[in-house]
Design brief:
Blueprint (H helix, E strand, L loop, with lengths): L5 E6 L3 H16 L6 E7 L3 H11 L3 E3 L11 E4 L7 H9 L3 E5 L6 H13 L4 E4 L6 H11 L6 E9 L16 H4 L3 H21 L2 E9 L4 E3 L4 H6 L8 E3 L5 E8 L4 E7 L8 E8 L3 E5 L5 E5 L7 E4 L20 H18 L7 H20 L3 E2 L1
Parallel strand pairs: 1-2, 1-4, 2-3, 4-5, 5-6, 7-12
Antiparallel strand pairs: 7-13, 8-11, 8-17, 9-10, 11-12, 13-14, 14-15, 15-16
Helix pairs in contact: 1-9, 3-4, 4-10, 5-7, 7-10
């Protein structure tokens, strides 16, 4: 492990850029054992916006070309749109730079495979941003399942519901483009759910073996906000132009695990009244549990002998990560998941160790997402 600070370069400075910059700033205050980090450079295209973002997010400088950055920093965060995950990440890994990439791993399975192979061949640490693994209640649930408290796993149900595209006049953004995003609700939201289910029950139920799926697009075109540059970033003024929506607005899927457990998955950007409702339920022969991101400090649990579910407030000092935060009952929030995952990834990078979730995990999720798309196209189950 190096004693020198890790210099960090970040591609992207909007939604995920803010989330990770905030996490990097919080680490020394709440996780003093974390590696020391220098927020070196933020990367984008708009120099004026970059200059403002660098100051606001605490970076020493900015750059407009990722190729000038990947060999100069110790750690490269790829937080850009899905179609630019592959080339910068691969270049960084080939240069021996640690890479942390947003999900899904890529916009195509072919690019995800290239990224996985680059990670296999590199001595650098590669991680993917499935931040919901690092919620204390999820870690608590994982420990219960691994200890056999739920018995043999029979059912997994996962949903991720949002409503930000219900309005047909909501503006077009890169998330509505198959060429850029790869898929819609399936990859953006479903990737989280499928990874979380594999993480929680993978040791108990094995991996997913076959899937069937259905994808639906409800609005075929949307107004472009203020021209091409604005449309790509999802910002800009009013425009009379429209652009085609080439991804799904919602998906459903059913699946089977190696042990015979069955799973149902669903995600939608058209679930009116739902802002960020990510829920998972697991039923076993001896017990069940339920979790909702909208109440992320709580876990509903039924174990053998219980007459009904009990609600556990996962905020005690002995609960995962909680000793770094507040006294019992003082809840944490969504942004803390990024602190936890950054702590784990940067600790692995500083020690020269592998990180989980890895690019291998990201590739496996990409395989499953692709299988759901193939099933939708063929109308048949797909073996994976």
């Amino acid at each position: 492990m190096t004693d020198e600070p890790l210099s960090v370069g970040v591609l992207g400075y909007r939604f995920m850029g803010k989330a990770h910059a905030n996490a990097l700033a919080r680490l020394p205050m709440f996780f003093p054992e974390a590696p020391e980090v220098e927020r070196e450079v933020v990367v984008g295209r708009d120099e004026e916006a970059l200059s403002e973002a660098a100051d606001r997010l605490g970076f020493q400088r900015y750059a407009t070309d990722w190729e000038d950055v990947v060999e100069e920093v110790d750690v490269f965060y790829n937080l850009g749109p899905n179609n630019i995950h592959a080339d910068p990440s691969i270049a960084a890994l080939e240069a021996g730079t640690h890479v942390f990439c947003e999900k899904p791993l890529a916009h195509t399975l072919e690019d995800a495979e290239r990224m996985r192979d680059a990670a296999r061949e590199s001595d650098a640490t590669a991680g993917i941003a499935f931040n919901y693994r690092f919620i204390p209640a999820i870690q608590y649930a994982k420990n219960l399942i691994d200890a056999g408290e739920l018995g043999e796993i029979h059912h997994v149900r996962g949903t991720y519901l949002q409503d930000w595209l219900v309005d047909p006049d909501a503006p077009w953004s890169w998330r509505n483009s198959k060429d850029v995003a790869g898929s819609g609700a399936l990859g953006d939201l479903g990737a989280h759910t499928i990874d979380l289910s594999r993480y929680l029950v993978g040791d108990a139920a094995g991996d997913l073996t076959r899937l069937s799926g259905h994808l639906q697009t409800f609005v075929d075109e949307r107004p472009v906000p203020g021209g091409d540059e604005g449309s790509l970033e999802g910002e800009g003024g009013e425009s009379s132009e429209t652009r085609a929506v080439t991804v799904d607005d919602a998906y459903t899927a059913q699946a089977e695990f190696e042990n015979g457990a069955i799973a149902t998955y669903e995600a939608s950007r058209f679930a009116n009244g739902c802002k960020n409702d990510h829920s998972i339920e697991i039923n076993g022969s001896k017990g069940s549990l339920k979790f909702s991101l909208e109440r992320l400090n709580e876990l509903e649990l039924l174990t053998e002998g219980d007459r009904g579910f009990q609600t556990i407030n996962v905020t005690d000092p002995e609960d995962p990560y909680i000793d770094h935060w507040w006294p019992p009952g003082h809840v944490i929030g969504w942004e803390h998941t990024f602190v936890h995952e950054n702590y784990e990834f940067l600790s692995a990078a500083a020690a020269g160790e592998s990180h989980s979730p890895s690019f291998e995990d990201g590739y496996r999720v990409q395989e499953l997402l692709t299988a759901i798309e193939e099933s939708d196209a063929s109308g048949e189950w797909v073996e994976v």
